[in-house]
Recover the amino acids of this structure.
């Protein structure tokens, strides 16, 4: 009997080549066993504390609150080792791979944060690491490409399509189909075939578990709104899940509106709410044309530049428990700059989408925002787009 | 005769002719363009194909290697769409049974019943969905069964015995046996385990066993037949020929003749 969800309402499933089905069963069984094993969770918890630096702080952003006209707390995932929430999942899955006896790790990366986190975990655990990355993302996230190399990972450039995250995921899945006996695929978000969406959520819920406790201790109450950016949706699902049963807490996922929802050049499948479909092994909210071809996403933020979304988000949307909105490139850039000036914090462009939405809405609210990563990686891209004044 | 029966007859008549296995060449619909792909399919029929596997281009083909992936991208850039590919299918299906190779999103976006009706209307005999494992296939299988379309499942070398039995029991048309652990594409040699892979597949099903992935030369086709395959599927080699040749139909006609000769 497995306790890992395959479906979230109608969403999820396992739409993959038959070659991978035994590997998914093996992974699910290993995960069910590992998470019930005190030795496994003990090792992960110790690493999260001593190596990653958890718990990450909750910070009351005073000047940002003044600018917004309401109180804003930031959950500082940017202060984790490697600079983003991605390490929570990468470390957990790398430990699981070692336990399964898989000596080789593959991963995909968009912004490079998941690639760096995976390369880091593999260095720590002495696992071979190959990271697939679109060449457009390699260009705009160059420092992370260099970091991965230094950490001993091999970065495989992906030239297909728009040369961004979607193609990197496809290339990683093809590698996995070929090398499945020796290899574990550390997928970076709550997407893909079961058991990945549930497993990644469980590894990321530490964000929300900590934040909920910290809010009660610091503010003496729960937030009115919990806000997080959504690409595939891993920081947001980890943030949301511990608040799902708190009826007074509104959950808001912020997608990338890119150049504008009406232009079609965005990364907002949940907000745009078109016909759902199958991408990368799961049935979920996706961006596709009328023929069923997957569309390219567009966002200034490489981590949100993805035409799919985690199946549990699609279900949280349909069930009405969470709502999804979209913020464009320009608004995100403004929030990026404003947060740097007002708080001395350079946020990742991904997280800047969540900040932008909170800054522009909801006077009198008490917001808890997941600052999912730091923005050092985005400096070149952002500075070239920001007004030089 | 419905689609499933037409497939059964194609395998049976190859056997009755004293051939070692049925030959099923693959083509990418809309590649190099729609008209040329129709000509390629007809050339397959001229050159001795018993059945034809027709791929529908999809933007994100997870089971395909670089050659077929590139052909799909090229077909889509050239404007190929599902309805156009079915138009090419209709012409080819007048000559030989045609089995569509179609990723699952292209089915769900149309709705299962509408999709299945379109296949019947185009004269197709069956459909292979490379990202639809048996665990997710119930609704599509029912729609195909109602219309006499064969939903052809795949098994892989990694498929364990209990899954193999489940897949074999619900196979329609033939059992698509993947010869190797990997994506589509040419390889230097057929896998040494192929006789066991085929024997395992044949033991769990009443339908013919066809082998595909990695069969790129007439010798390899003959080796697959010798290993016990009832049918041999040749894809990437022919797609590559169609990509490289000035006259795609002429180039594949010669190649398919060579493959057919190797199976005599």
């Amino acid at each position: 009997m497995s306790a890992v969800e395959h479906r979230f309402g109608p969403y999820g499933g396992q739409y993959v080549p038959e070659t991978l089905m035994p590997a998914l069963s093996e992974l699910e069984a290993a995960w069910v066993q590992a998470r019930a094993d005190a030795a496994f969770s003990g090792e992960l918890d110790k690493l999260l504390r001593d190596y990653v630096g958890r718990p990450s702080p909750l910070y009351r952003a005073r000047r940002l609150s003044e600018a917004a006209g309401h109180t804003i707390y930031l959950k500082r995932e940017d202060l984790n080792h490697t600079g983003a929430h991605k390490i929570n999942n990468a470390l957990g899955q790398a430990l699981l791979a070692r336990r399964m006896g898989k000596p080789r790790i593959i991963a995909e990366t968009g912004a490079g944060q998941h690639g760096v986190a995976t390369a880091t975990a593999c260095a720590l655990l002495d696992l071979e690491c190959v990271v697939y990355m679109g060449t457009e993302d390699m260009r705009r996230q160059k420092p992370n490409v260099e970091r991965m190399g230094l950490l001993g990972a091999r970065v495989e450039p992906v030239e297909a399509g728009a040369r961004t995250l979607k193609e990197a995921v496809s290339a990683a899945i093809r590698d996995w189909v070929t090398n499945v006996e020796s290899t574990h695929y550390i997928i970076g978000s709550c997407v893909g075939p079961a058991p990945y969406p549930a497993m990644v959520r469980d590894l990321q819920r530490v964000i929300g578990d900590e934040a909920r406790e910290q809010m009660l201790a610091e503010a003496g109450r729960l937030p009115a709104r919990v806000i997080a950016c959504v690409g595939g949706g891993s920081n947001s699902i980890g943030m949301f899940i511990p608040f799902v049963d708190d009826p007074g807490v509104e959950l808001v996922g912020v997608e990338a509106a890119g150049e504008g929802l009406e232009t079609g050049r965005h990364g907002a499948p949940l907000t745009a709410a078109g016909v759902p479909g199958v991408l990368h092994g799961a049935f979920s909210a996706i961006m596709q044309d009328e023929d069923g071809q997957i569309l390219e996403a567009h966002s200034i933020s490489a981590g949100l530049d993805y035409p799919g979304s985690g199946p549990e988000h699609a279900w949280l949307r349909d069930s009405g428990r969470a709502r999804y909105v979209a913020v464009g490139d320009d608004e995100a850039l403004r929030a990026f700059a404003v947060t740097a000036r007002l708080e001395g914090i350079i946020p990742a462009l991904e997280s800047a989408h969540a900040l932008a939405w909170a800054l522009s809405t909801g006077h009198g609210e008490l917001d808890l925002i997941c600052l999912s990563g730091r923005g050092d990686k985005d400096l070149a891209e952002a500075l070239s787009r920001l007004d030089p004044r | 005769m419905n689609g499933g029966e037409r497939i059964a007859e194609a395998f049976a008549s190859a056997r009755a002719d004293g051939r070692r296995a049925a030959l099923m060449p693959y083509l990418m619909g809309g590649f190099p363009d729609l008209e040329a792909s129709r000509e390629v399919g007809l050339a397959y029929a001229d050159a001795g194909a018993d059945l034809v596997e027709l791929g529908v281009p999809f933007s994100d083909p997870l089971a395909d290697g670089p050659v077929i992936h590139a052909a799909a991208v090229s077909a889509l850039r050239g404007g190929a769409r599902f309805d156009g590919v079915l138009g090419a299918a209709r012409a080819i299906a007048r000559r030989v049974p045609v089995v569509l190779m179609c990723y699952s999103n292209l089915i769900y976006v149309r709705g299962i019943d509408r999709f299945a009706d379109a296949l019947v209307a185009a004269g197709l005999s069956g459909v292979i969905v490379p990202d639809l494992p048996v665990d997710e296939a119930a609704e599509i299988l029912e729609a195909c069964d109602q219309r006499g379309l064969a939903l052809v499942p795949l098994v892989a070398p990694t498929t364990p015995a209990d899954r193999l039995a489940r897949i074999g029991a619900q196979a329609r048309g033939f059992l698509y046996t993947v010869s190797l652990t990997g994506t589509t594409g040419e390889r230097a040699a057929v896998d040494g385990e192929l006789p066991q892979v085929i024997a395992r597949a044949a033991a769990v099903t009443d339908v013919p066993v066809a082998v595909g992935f990695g069969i790129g030369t007439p010798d390899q086709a003959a080796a697959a037949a010798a290993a016990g395959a009832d049918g041999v599927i040749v894809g990437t080699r022919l797609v590559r020929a169609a990509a490289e040749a000035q006259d795609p139909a002429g180039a594949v006609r010669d190649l398919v003749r060579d493959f057919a000769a190797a199976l005599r």
Notes: The radius of gyration of chain B is 16 Å. Chain B touches chain A through 38 residues (CB under 8 Å). DSSP finds twelve helices and nine strands in chain B.
